[in-house]
């Protein structure tokens, strides 16, 4: 990142400075930024001649708060700090700016501080958020890691918040598959929060991307975690929630995704689990139930990317042609029956019934007792009962 003067640098420096002045998601600040532009807005805030009309709609207390925050801001120092950490500052109009964030309107980020080498815009175009409870169950952690690994193997970028629980499991799942993952932080990108995830965040910065709205060194707060979730929702094609209580921040992400016309998905849990209660409430509404990566890709992917058809195991009798299946059904469950009785029950002629019964006998489905037929009795003395499946289309 260079800091030489110039039109582009003026905008970039002003936006970098404003990330220290305004909280993420401040729509009033976003409206003023849209109307005045970043350099003009910063000039009005920092001007020693500021008056009551400096910021339209802002009272004296709000203006004083902005001026206090703006005092001593050093955008060049912040840009140098993020560059030293292997990062950069991306703002609207940059080639790497993910334009889907513009859907947030005046709540759009002023800019994004980013660590990592990959192109943010191209990664965001094919990304899915996987979020959920911090205090998750082993089932939830397993599902998050499995889904993330499956998405990564299919070329999708997994986005989450680097928190304990589901977030961490999702990041690790993507990394374990050699895939791409993005961590969206509620603090400066040079701050490892939670501290217990310092190693994980470092791995993500090396193999993927770490980003946030707050400048280097800034700390997280409860409100910043909640506001961070709108960025996760807007950045991605869809949001998957794995375990969430009724009052869970991950549900905020899902609601933002729904408002932004993104796909909203949930992974079901036990009906008695409080950690899945919020997910189940989502599924009662507009969210789609998903259980694996194929089902997620079916929602967020291109037309024709369908999940494989689900079915149980194929049994030998499933491969019988319709006539063979009908005649086998006509053989009584208990006791033998004559060919004429079986033919009548199956609605077939005596000749085709007899021929089919002999084929069923050869395949181990039935056995003959004199002039009668019965179902093969399973057991070690009945080898025919364990024979292989018939050829598809047999008896056709």
Task: Please provide a brief summary of the model.
With 396 residues, the chain is an alpha/beta fold. The chain has 16 helices and twelve strands. The chain folds into three domains: 7-75; 99-300, Rossmann fold (3-Layer(aba) Sandwich); 316-386, Winged helix-like DNA-binding domain superfamily/Winged helix DNA-binding domain (Arc Repressor Mutant, subunit A), CATH 1.10.10.10.
Main structural class:
alpha/beta
Strand content: 5-15%
CATH topology of the largest domain: Rossmann fold
What profile does the largest beta sheet have? 9 strands, mixed
So how many helices? Answer: 16
Domain unit count: 3
CATH architectural designation of the largest domain: 3-Layer(aba) Sandwich
The helix/strand series, from N terminus to C terminus, equals HHHHHEEHEHEHEHEHEHEHEHHEHHEE
Number of strands: 12
Question: Assembly state here?
Answer: single chain
The CATH class label of the largest domain is Alpha Beta
Structure report:
- The chain is of the alpha/beta class and 396 residues long.
- The chain has 3 domains: 69 residues; 202 residues, Rossmann fold, CATH 3.40.50; 71 residues, Winged helix-like DNA-binding domain superfamily/Winged helix DNA-binding domain (Arc Repressor Mutant, subunit A, Orthogonal Bundle), CATH 1.10.10.10.
- The protein has 16 helices and 12 strands.
- The strands form 2 sheets. A 9-stranded mixed sheet has the order 1-2-6-5-4-3-7-8-9, with helices on both faces. A 3-stranded antiparallel sheet has the order 10-12-11.
- β5, α9 and β6 form a beta-alpha-beta unit.
- α2 crosses α3, α7 packs across α13 and α14 packs across α15.
- The longest helix has 16 residues.
- The relative contact order is 0.09.
């Amino acid at each position: 990142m260079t800091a030489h003067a110039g039109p582009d640098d003026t905008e970039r420096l002003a936006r970098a400075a404003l990330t220290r002045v305004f909280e993420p998601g401040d729509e009033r600040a976003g409206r003023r930024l849209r109307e005045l532009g970043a350099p003009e807005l910063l000039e009005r805030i920092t001007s020693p001649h500021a008056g009551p009309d400096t910021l339209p709609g802002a009272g004296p207390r709000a203006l004083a708060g902005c001026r206090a925050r703006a005092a001593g801001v050093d955008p060049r120092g912040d840009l140098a700090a993020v560059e030293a950490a292997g990062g950069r500052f991306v703002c609207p109009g940059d080639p790497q700016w993910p334009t889907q964030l513009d859907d947030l309107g005046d709540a759009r980020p002023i800019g994004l501080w980013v660590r990592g080498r990959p192109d943010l815009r191209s990664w965001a175009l094919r990304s899915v958020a996987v979020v959920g409870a911090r205090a998750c169950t082993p089932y939830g952690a397993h599902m998050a890691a499995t889904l993330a690994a499956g998405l990564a193997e299919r070329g999708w970028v997994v986005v989450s918040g680097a928190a304990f629980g589901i977030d961490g499991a999702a990041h690790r799942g993507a990394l374990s598959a050699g895939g791409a993952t993005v961590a969206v932080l509620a603090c400066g990108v040079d701050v490892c929060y939670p501290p217990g995830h310092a190693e994980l965040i470092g791995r993500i910065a090396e193999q993927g991307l770490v980003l946030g709205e707050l400048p280097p060194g800034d700390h997280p707060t409860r409100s910043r975690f909640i506001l961070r979730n709108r960025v996760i929702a807007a950045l991605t094609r869809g949001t998957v929630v794995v375990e969430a209580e009724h009052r869970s921040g991950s549900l905020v992400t899902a609601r933002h995704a729904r408002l932004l016309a993104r796909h909203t998905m949930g992974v079901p849990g036990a009906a008695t689990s409080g950690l899945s209660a919020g997910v189940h409430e989502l599924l009662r509404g507009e969210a789609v139930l998903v259980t694996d990566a194929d089902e997620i890709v079916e929602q967020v992917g291109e037309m024709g990317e369908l999940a494989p058809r689900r079915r149980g195991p194929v049994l030998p009798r499933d491969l019988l042609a319709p006539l063979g299946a009908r005649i086998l059904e006509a053989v009584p469950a208990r006791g033998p029956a004559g060919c004429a009785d079986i033919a009548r029950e199956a609605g077939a002629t005596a000749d085709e019934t007899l021929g089919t019964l002999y084929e069923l006998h050869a395949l181990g489905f039935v056995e003959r007792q004199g002039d009668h037929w019965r179902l093969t009795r399973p057991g070690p003395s009945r080898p025919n009962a364990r024979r292989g499946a018939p050829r598809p289309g047999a008896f056709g």
